[in-house]
Every structure is written in structure tokens, then in C-alpha cells.
Amino acid sequence: MTSSASVHNIRNLGIALILVGLVAPLVVYPVFLMKFLCFALFACAFNLMLGFVGMLSFGHAAFLSTGGYVTGYLMTQVGLSTELGVLAGTIVAGVLGFIFGKLSVKREGIYFAMVTLALAQLVFFFYLQAPFTGGEDGMQPIPRGELFGLIDMKDNFNMYYFVLAVFVIGFSIIYRTIHSPFGQVLKAIRENEPRAVSLGYNVRDYKLMAFVISATLAGMAGATKALVFELESLTDAHWHMSGEVVLMTLLGGMGTIFGPVVGAAIVVAITTIFSGGQMGNYIHIIMGVIFVICVLSFRRGVVGEFNHFMQKNFTASGLGK
Amino acid sequence: MSFLDINIFGLMGQLLVGLINGSFYALLALGLAIIFGLLRIINFAQGALYMLGAFVAWLGLQHLGMNYWVALFVVPVVVGLIGILMERFFIRPIANEDHLYSLLLTFGLALILQGTFTHMFGSSGMSYNIPDALKGGNNLGFMYLPTYRAWIILVSLVVCLGAWWVIEKTSLGSYLRAGTENPALLQAFGVNVPMMITLTFGFGVALAGLAGVLAAPIYSVSPDMGSNILIVVFAIVVIGGMGSIGGAILTGLGMGVVEGLTKYFYPEASTTVIFMVMVLVLLLKPAGLFGKEA
């Protein structure tokens, strides 16, 4: 529900978070923050499908990796400026999203999940075999380039503010999409698809459009991430990555605006703590356990539970649905 | 390579490999279809349970001296019991929620299983010897047929046809089909539907366990053996549609053969050909070859 109070709440909270984002690199290691922002954008883009249209895509790794590989290739081979490199990766991911969407929105529910997973596996094998990706070794080093041909992005602080700007743009697009008449139709499809059809909406076109937006922004996250780490590898295309973004969204609260951001923060923190050495093996077990707990008894996620608690006790409108 | 210059040994060899892969696809797709029929969920852990089946056979041989023939019966029972526990304690509590949740739940269980085995045994594969009685092979003149490979195809066909016959032709099967159509009405006739659901899930999962035992001697037993094959089986399920048990079996075998032929004529595409077929089917017949729903 979008009462004006909740819109105000979200706007104020958004401004406060941007301010926090501006000073954060003074306190926290910027590369960690950039990793978090990229995954948060990825999860928000994914949530547009799962949370607001009710469609579980198990293939979003394909868009993340496509953004990364295309941007990486162009930055390495053509030497574009940073913003054009990211833009190119984003657009190609959007085109791929259109193709995926055309094929997959014909099927619903569980079938949709399986189709997207299988299509993403096709993309994975393509990147595994294509010569330009570097196969198992990955593509590196990817130059970060210069923003507008002027600002050197090798500096982590410069890069951080660029990533923050990308995140804010992406997040704003998702926010506007959800709160537009288009977004209302998406929610109508989620709640009662036959009814939306009977009201004369071409449901498949709406789903396709939502899928393209979601894929495009996932690609933007991937393109940015490739520049942050100066590396693109098959990890991003693997089905584990598609599962990870589902987990972020589920854990944070699907169908909430800020849920995926919170979920991404938790998952990125966990993977960062456990990555490397002996602990690496535990990551998948921990993720699996979180999945099971979330599904069995924590379906609203962190932000969803928070909203529920606020509504029950203060009848305030929480962080928006 | 010239297409006219076909090496009959090479072609038959790849066809055989295709039939064997197809046997595994058929067993796994059949398990998924049986579970889907009654529970309306997709078991994402099917691949992990296939891996578990192979590991139970391997562990049994290493530590308990359980030979292959015993494993062939014991392992499906063990894996089936694990499936029954899964259904009872994890899947049943969320049976009334959106089915996407059960998909996510089984995905989580698959991650736990795979992660645990990777932690315990590393990601490199273990080898399991072919039992003595099935070693060797026969030269058929146009090809060499290793006995164990023939055995896999035989067992898979017998089990698949048996399951098809039970479900389509017997009174037990008629209960299952009735449960698929209208579980509430079936329960009103005095059938214990929740128990039937649990046992069905156990049976579907036991098929994955059986496939695991069959696979142990020819593929290396490794923690990620299940996840790779499962995504292919998902594509096969999309191609065939979940409409019929027979459809799942035929599509599984058929896609194995298609994959084998691709390995012979254009090896670069052999890992992706099944996904390409899926794309074609989605374009031409979105409900799947044997599917009924849109």
C-alpha cells in the first residue's frame, strides 16, 4: 500500500541512506562497500520480478555475467570511458533479458523457474567455451578506464562514488517502476493474474517488460562489479549465483523496497567472512541452512518482519511494500 | 569432417553413450514427474539425492563391505527413507504455501547436502569398481558393447516401464492418478492421502538413489555430480512437459540420444544441445511435447 506517509518515510529514509553512503568510505573499506552496492542493486533488480510480479527467475546470473563480460571486453579491447563501458554491458544484458523473457514468460510458476535456469545454463556453457571470456581463468585485468575520459577510476574513492551513483540510479528506476501505474498492474498480476487478464491487460507483455527492466539493471550491476574487481569470471554465470540472489531477496524480504539491500548486506558479509581457506566449504552449507530457515519460518524476511512488527504495534506504515 | 564419411563404430559408440545418459535422464525425470504429479512441486534436491545414492553405495563398499548387488537394493531404500523424512518434516509444513517456497526449500536442502559432501570428501571424484559379473563386453560386429553399459540401459528400461505400468494400469496407480486430480475427494473415500503423498515422495526420491548406484561405477562419485545433471533434467522436463509419466521417460531417453548424436557430429554443441532443443520447443509448442497445461 502506498499511503503518502509511507512514500514520505521511504523518501526520507532514502535521503538519509544516501548521506550515509557518501561518508561510508571514510569508515569502511571502499572495495567491500562497492561489492555490497553491486550485489544490492543485483538483488533489487531480481526482486522486481520475484517480489512485485511473483515470478521466480532462476537465471539472473546470466545477466550479471553478461554485463560483466561485455563491459570487460569493451574496456579491454576498445578502451571505452568508464560510463560508456558500463552502459554497453547494461544494454546487452537488457537485450539478452528480452530474449529470455520472450521464451520464458509463456510458462508460469515452477516451469518459469526451470526455463530461466536452463537458459542461464546455456549462457554459462557459452561463456565457458567462447574464446574471449578466458574460460575457466576468467577475464582479467579489466581496466577501470576514466569517467567521461577525465577522472581516473583506478583510485578506489573515485570508483566508489561512481558505484554509489550507479546504485542510486538503478534503485531509483526500480522505485519509480514499482510506484508507477505500470507497477500497479504488475502487483495486480501477482495478486490475481486471471483477473488482470479479464480487465484487458496483456499480462505477457507486462511480464516481459518487467523482465527486461530487471535483466537490464542486473546487467548494470554486473558491469559495475566487473570494473570494481577488474575481473570477470564464470562464478558470476554459475547457477550458484542465481541461487545467491534468490537468497538475498528472500532473507531481506521479497516484495519490500529495502529488503534486497538488507539481504545483500548480510549475504555479502557472510561470504566475505567465510571466503578463503578452510571456511570456504561452509558457505554453501550456511546458505542452504538460511534458505531452509527462511522458507520454513521466516518468509517475510528481515524487512518484511520489521514492517509487520511496526504495523502491528504502531499502525505506522513501515518501509513500504 | 565429412558427413558422408560416417565411422560406424564411432557413431554407435556415441549413440550408446547417449542411451546411457538418456537412461539416467529418464530415471531422474520420472522421479520428478511422479513427485510433481501428486505434490505439484519440483524437487530441486533430486540431483543431490542422486549424488547421495552414489556416495552411499561408495561408502557402503568402503566401510561395510556392501557389494554392488546389495547396494542396488539397499541404497534406494536408504535414500527413499531420507526422502520420506524430508517430506514429513520440511515439505509438509509448507504444503499450503505457494509452491515456489517448496522449490526454494528443496534448493536449500540440495545446497546443504552438496556442501556437506564437498566438505567431507573434497570436490575430486571417487572411483567405484564395476562388479565382476558385469565386467567385459561383447563385440556385436558393428560395435563393442560393454556389459555394464548394457546393464544400465536394461535396469533403467525395466524400472521405467514398471513404474509406468504401475501408475497407468493398476489400482494402486489409479489412486495416485485420483490424488493428482482431486486429493480432497479421494480422502473423503477413506484413502489416507497424506501418507500416500509421503510414500510417493519417497518412491520418487528412491529412483534418484537407484540412478546414483547405477552411475557410481561409470561416472566418478563426486559431490557436484548431481547439480550438473539436474539442470539438464529440468530442461528435459520443460521439453516433455509434466503431462504424462510416459512422456518424461521418452523425452529423457530421446534427449540422451540427441546429445550422443551431437557428440558425434558436432562435439562443441554437445553440452548445450538439450537447452537449444528446449528453446525450440518453447518457440513451437510452449506447453511441451507431452504437456497439457499452457
Written overview of the protein:
The complex is a heterodimer of chains A (321) and B (294). Chain A is built from 13 helices and two strands, in the order αααααββαααααααα. Chain A has 321 residues and is mainly α. Chain A has a domain at 29-238. A two-stranded antiparallel ribbon of chain A has the order 1-2. In chain A, a hairpin with a 3-residue loop joins strand 1 (146-147) and strand 2 (151-152). The longest helix of chain A has 27 residues, at 203-229. Chain A is globular. By secondary structure, chain B is mainly alpha-helical. Chain B has a single domain, classed as ABC transporter involved in vitamin B12 uptake, BtuC (Orthogonal Bundle). Helices cover 71% and strands 2% of the residues of chain B. Chain B is built from eleven helices and two strands. Chain B has helices at 8-39, 46-64, 68-91, 99-121, 147-169, 171-181, 183-188, 193-215, 225-240, 245-265, 273-284, and strands at residues 137-139, 144-146. Chain B has a two-stranded antiparallel sheet. In chain B, strand 1 and strand 2 form a beta hairpin. In chain B, helix 1 packs antiparallel against helix 10 (245-265). Chain A binds chain B through residues 56, 103-104, 106-111, 113-115, 117-119, 121-122, 125-126, 129, 239, 243, 246, 250, 281-285, 287-292, 294-296, 299, and chain B through 41-42, 90, 93-94, 97, 99-105, 107-116, 118-119, 227, 231-232, 234-235, 237-238, 268, 271-272, 275-276, 278-279, 282-283, 286, 294.
What is the element layout, followed by pairings?
The complex is a heterodimer of chains A (321) and B (294).
Chain A: H1 4-23, H2 30-50, H3 61-77, H4 82-104, H5 109-129, E1 146-147, E2 151-152, H6 156-178, H7 181-191, H8 193-198, H9 203-229, H10 239-252, H11 259-274, H12 282-297, H13 301-314
Antiparallel strand pairs in A: 1-2
Helix pairs in contact in A: 2-6, 2-9, 2-10, 2-11, 3-4, 3-9, 4-9, 6-9, 7-9, 10-11, 10-12, 10-13
Chain B: H1 8-39, H2 46-64, H3 68-91, H4 99-121, E1 137-139, E2 144-146, H5 147-169, H6 171-181, H7 183-188, H8 193-215, H9 225-240, H10 245-265, H11 273-284
Helix pairs in contact in B: 1-5, 1-8, 1-9, 1-10, 2-3, 2-4, 2-8, 2-9, 3-8, 5-6, 9-10, 9-11
